[in-house]
Design a protein that fits this description.
Number of strands: 19
Distance between the termini: 6 Å
Strand order of the largest sheet: 1-2-19-18-17-3-16-4
CATH topology of the largest domain: Rossmann fold
Order of helices and strands: EEHEHHEEEEEEEEEEEEEHHEHHEHEHHH
Low-confidence stretches: 1-7, 92-98
Largest sheet: 8 strands, mixed
Helix content: 25-40%
Number of domains: 2
CATH class of the largest domain: Alpha Beta
Strand content: 25-35%
Radius of gyration: 20 Å
Shape: globular
Mean pLDDT: 86
């Protein structure tokens, strides 16, 4: 890989070094050599989830398809990396409308999404309801599933192609449960069937892989409305702070800050919470920080937003981790808005999301 403080021709890519990107570099080699898969998690807010990229006037419908993580997987494939974004993570919803982001989620009769957020991909079911189904579009032989074990929330049967393989919420204390199954190579249906009275099930991850051709999976962990304090929460075993580590990514891109700016989070709290996630997630994963695109709002002038951006830049230097400085890529807030990169004054549209994905891809190209 190239090793330098920042690229002269791409000054928005900074502090990429072999010593702080070794895990991802090794994971790339494993995928290229077809010996092991790689998982890259992109943590963030609505501009990661895809809000603004939708095909309708709300910016929601089919938004996941045009989100930066999905576009990144396509750019990686164009470079010959066996990449995909087919995993389902309990995070890519907005306003409870999870199915807008992933048409493979079939809620069934009586089911409804109960909220959005990492480990907040909760679903409600009434007695006698239809099955909740996931049909990955990827041909696979390995299946990794993580769910919230919360016995007080109702009991559910987990099935693969109609065969019972596990029961959720049947016993034990609250926990984050992770299970893996080998299946015959092909397309499969994962079902969750309510087996009692009205209840709630929380799904963190349903991730398919093909063992004969290990892949590079891009996980969209964008949560609409999230601030950095959301990601530092650690109240339950499946809270965002702990569950990001538990899915064991090789690399984590942290693209957060827009909502902290909007809600004027105290800078000291912003720094403390940001440092907390860097320290925890960096124990087992390479961490890449992102300075978010500035909001194009008169009420949040660029100079006011710069204080938050500077905190992220300082944390990159203090922790010796790479940085993607998106304002240097997009230009000043009003210029980016006038260039047609925004759905509204906060959310990126499909063009803006594509530009963000290109910056991600250029960063990964340095590592590979």
């Amino acid at each position: 890989m190239k090793s330098y403080e920042h690229a002269g021709e791409k000054p928005y890519l900074q502090n990429f070094k072999s010593r702080n990107t070794g895990r991802l570099a090794n994971a790339f080699q494993s995928v290229r050599g077809k010996t092991a898969p790689c998982l890259l998690a992109i943590v963030g807010d609505s501009n990661v989830a895809g809000h603004g990229c939708g095909i309708d006037g709300t910016g929601f419908v089919d938004a996941r398809r045009y989100s930066a993580p999905v576009r990144l997987s396509l750019l990686l494939r164009a470079r010959g990396v066996n990449a995909h974004a087919d995993g389902i993570f309990g995070n890519s919803g907005t306003g409870g409308e999870y199915e807008y982001y992933d048409p493979r989620v079939k809620l069934g009769i009586g089911w409804k999404a109960a909220g959005a957020g990492l480990s907040g991909g909760y679903y409600l079911a009434d007695s006698g309801d239809d099955v909740l189904q996931f049909k990955p579009e990827l041909c696979f032989s390995d299946l990794n599933i993580a769910y919230c074990q919360a016995p007080t929330r109702g009991t559910f049967d987990l099935e693969i192609d109609g065969t019972l393989v596990d029961r959720i919420n049947t016993k034990g204390p609250n926990a984050l449960v992770q299970r893996e199954w080998k299946v015959s190579a092909g397309y499969h249906c994962i079902s969750i069937r309510h087996s009692g009275q009205r209840g709630q099930v929380g799904i963190l991850r349903i991730s398919p892989h093909d063992s004969w051709s290990p892949d590079f999976e891009v996980a969209n962990l964008g949560v609409c409305g999230a601030k950095i304090d959301y990601w530092s929460m650690d109240k339950e075993p499946w809270s965002p702070f702990r569950s990001v580590s538990n899915i064991k990514p090789d690399g984590i891109i942290i693209d957060i800050g827009t909502n902290d700016i909007a809600h004027k989070s105290p800078l000291a709290d912003f720094r403390r919470n940001y440092q907390r996630v860097i320290s925890e997630w960096g124990k087992a994963s390479d961490v890449i920080l992102v300075v978010p695109v500035a909001r194009a709002l008169r009420g949040a002038p660029e100079e006011a937003q710069r204080a938050y951006a500077d905190v992220i830049r300082e944390l990159s230097a203090e922790n010796d981790v790479p940085l993607i400085d998106l304002p240097m890529c997009f230009g000043p807030q009003e210029v980016a808005f006038q260039r047609g990169l925004h759905f509204d004054q906060t959310h990126l549209n499909q063009r803006g999301s594509a530009l963000k994905a290109m910056a991600y891809d250029e960063a990964l190209a340095l590592i590979e």
